[in-house]
Amino acid sequence: MLAATALVVCASFSTTALSQEALRNGSVAPMGQWLEYREANFNNNPILVHLRTGYERAIVLPEPVELRDPNQSLPGCEIVISDNIVAFYPTQTYTRRPIVFIGKVTGAVYDLRIRASTKGMRQPMRVNRR
Prior knowledge:
This protein has one helix at 17-25, and strands spanning 38-42, 47-52, 57-60, 65-67, 77-82, 85-90, 94-103, 109-117, 125-129. It is mainly beta. The protein has a single domain (17-129), classed as Immunoglobulin-like (Sandwich). The chain is globular and about 40 Å long.
């Protein structure tokens, strides 16, 4: 197995009631297991993320993060943060929207540009610092 390959298992996020309900009622399918991450490089530019409507997707950032503005939101999509893992639960399609996270260790600004559609990706993404 290659060193870059990592086993990703659906993490036990401290999900809120909305994401738990979305998983229970079937409006969002759990992430499940993946053999590899989709890789993205952090170079202070926005990171483009395309979510698949109806499926949980995790983004693993290089450090623990928090939302820069706690009032940020995405239409029909819950965002759950657990340390350096951000889980998205999109239930509807929407065009690209910015969601900005702040690194708790370095203060780095992680600008994600998120959109959701039926053609989006399900594979978890790992953001690497370069």
